[in-house]
Design a protein that fits this description.
219 residues, alpha/beta, Rossmann fold, binds S-adenosylmethionine
Length: 219
């Protein structure tokens, strides 16, 4: 409980303020994650670190991306236990979120969380990214496509960029990146008709973990 408060304080210190309702939703999400994780492999992060390692890490994007208008559509590719899509959806009720994963069991857990939390702006979608990218209903349909810990960049670009509408962005949550990886990404992007728009860097508060955000767009 005290650790949860720590991450909420850290969030406020970097400009991400959570109201009472959001805090209670995160508490319930954490309880459900801890319980379900006993029977289903959802996360290796210990419960006392969910606040920082999952919730706050997911929300760090808000330092660099603004949900400035109504009805933005967001796709989270390889969402797993809901990261980063679900924490972003909790604090951004005006945007519409689709949480995609290739593993149905994880989505069943997420459907339970969405129902329990009463979230009206989130739905799940069972598919492999490479299959969904062929579907008209999803191809080039999203303002923002997120992914964290899903695949190496060379695969990730092909799994996320097809969903971005012109003018939108795909954002990859990454750790340390070498210049070589960035150069490699740039050459893959060329063949995918995309471009690396910017790379932003921050530190996950109360840890020494570096978080880099790679923003890709369509040419
Ligand atoms: N994004 C979550 C996080 O940061 O905690 C989950 C990361 S987990 C290591 C990777 C997730 O990507 C798994 O849930 C897996 O089922 C999903 N995944 C792997 N390959 C995929 C694909 N081709 N299409 C959709 N999801 C995929």
């Amino acid at each position: 409980m005290s650790e949860e408060r720590d991450w909420i304080i850290s969030a406020r210190e970097i400009g991400i303020s959570l109201d009472k309702k959001a805090i209670s939703l995160f508490e319930r999400y954490a309880q459900m994650l801890e319980k379900t994780n006993q029977s289903l492999n959802l996360t290796r992060v210990p419960p006392e670190d969910y606040g920082t390692r999952h919730f706050l890490d997911s929300l760090l994007l808000l330092q660099f991306y603004s949900f400035d208008r109504q009805n933005r559509s967001v796709l989270d590719v390889g969402t797993g236990a809901g990261f980063p899509g679900l924490p972003l959806a909790i604090v951004t009720p005006q945007a519409q979120f689709t949480l995609m994963d290739a593993t149905r069991k994880r989505l069943i857990f997420l459907d339970d969380v969405i129902a329990e939390l009463g979230l009206q702006n989130v739905k799940t979608f069972h598919s492999r990214a490479e299959d969904a990218a062929q579907l008209k209903a999803h191809r080039q349909q999203y303002d923002l496509v997120t992914s964290r810990a899903v695949a190496p960049l060379e695969r990730l670009i092909g799994w996320t960029l097809p969903f971005v509408r012109v003018g939108g962005v795909a954002v990859a949550y990454k750790g340390q990146l070498t210049d070589e990886e960035i150069a490699q990404a740039e050459s893959i992007l060329k063949s995918e008709k995309g471009s690396l728009l910017r790379v932003e860097e921050t530190t996950l508060p109360a840890t020494d973990a570096i978080r880099k955000f790679m923003f890709f767009g369509k040419i």
